[in-house]
């Protein structure tokens, strides 16, 4: 079990270990479209009923969590009719992430190493050269068949290496007949990565955010202040 920071650390340690062993790391950062909202309810209950057959009360409790969830859409202060959500888990619930992890526990294992934190999945394959063949960092179509989840267009691939001659070389990975977008600066759990793991882009973004917050912090000591909503957001614990 890893936290968010530990998951990113484990990924970067693997890539840096590859640098030491003269290996290049090809990574796929999988983005599941509306992951929590597309959880298949019947499949969800089937997996849990197999895992906890001895406790019927717990099965009944888990069955009530994704059911009877209603929602309404507002546009220009006018609300739509109430609808019932047939699938998905309640976002913001304390148990939602734990239940989602259990739902994905039997996700198909790729050829490379897989780093999973809730709905954020990174698949890494290491080799001496940058491989352009689909099977090396393959996204299996059974992700959608077995789990009823959809791979979003924000899914990215990136090659991590120290060879400056291959700076602009892109990976070619195809999923269901569509080529996955190559990114030279992908994001993993909020951290912006780059080819050689210098974290330059992430540091620059963090510096800009910090600078703007320092300016807002200075406004608190002035007589005229600033907008209360902005100050409240600034002082809120991250």
Question: Mind summarizing the main beta sheet?
Answer: 6 strands, mixed
* Rounded mean pLDDT score: 78
Counting DSSP E segments of at least 2 residues, the number of strands comes to 14
Low-confidence stretches: 132-137
Helical content class: 25-40%
Number of helices: 7
Taking Cα atoms only, what radius of gyration do you get, to the nearest Å?
A: 22 Å
Number of domains: 2
> Kindly, what is the distance between the CA atoms of the first and last residues, rounded to a whole number of angstroms?
22 Å
Protein name: Putative RNA-directed DNA polymerase
Keywords: Nucleotidyltransferase, RNA-directed DNA polymerase, Transferase
GO molecular function, one term: RNA-directed DNA polymerase activity
Organism: Schizaphis graminum
Describe this structure in words.
This protein has 2 domains: 4-198, no CATH class; 203-235. Helix content is 34%, strand content 20%. The strands form 5 sheets. Strands 1, 6, 7, 8, 9 and 12 form a 6-stranded mixed β-sheet that branches. Strands 2-5 form a two-stranded antiparallel sheet. The chain has a two-stranded antiparallel sheet with strand order 3-4. The chain contains 7 helices and 14 strands. The longest helix has 21 residues, at 200-220. Helix 6 (200-220) crosses helix 7. The protein is α+β, with helices and mostly antiparallel strands. The radius of gyration is 22 Å and the shape is globular.
């Amino acid at each position: 079990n890893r936290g968010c920071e530990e998951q990113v650390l484990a990924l970067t340690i693997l890539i840096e270990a590859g640098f030491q062993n003269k290996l290049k790391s090809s990574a796929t950062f999988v983005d599941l479209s509306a992951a929590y909202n597309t959880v298949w309810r019947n499949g969800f209950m089937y997996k849990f009923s197999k895992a906890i057959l001895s406790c019927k009360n717990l099965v009944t409790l888990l069955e009530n969590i994704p059911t009877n969830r209603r929602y309404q859409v507002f546009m220009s202060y006018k609300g739509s009719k109430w609808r019932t959500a047939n699938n998905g888990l309640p976002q913001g619930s304390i148990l939602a992430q734990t239940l989602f992890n259990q739902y994905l526990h039997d996700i198909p294992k790729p050829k490379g190493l897989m780093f999973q934190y809730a709905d954020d999945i990174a698949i890494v394959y290491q080799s001496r050269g940058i491989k352009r063949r689909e099977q090396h960092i393959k996204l299996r179509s059974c992700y959608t068949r077995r789990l009823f989840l959809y791979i979003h267009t924000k899914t990215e691939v990136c090659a991590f290496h120290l060879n400056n001659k291959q700076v602009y070389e892109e990976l070619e990975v195809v999923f269901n007949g569509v080529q996955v977008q190559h990114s030279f600066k992908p994001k993993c759990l909020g951290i912006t990565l780059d080819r050689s793991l210098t974290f330059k882009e992430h540091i620059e973004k963090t510096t800009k955010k910090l600078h703007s917050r320092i300016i807002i912090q200075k406004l608190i000591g002035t007589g005229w202040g600033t907008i209360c909503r902005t100050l409240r957001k600034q002082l809120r614990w991250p």
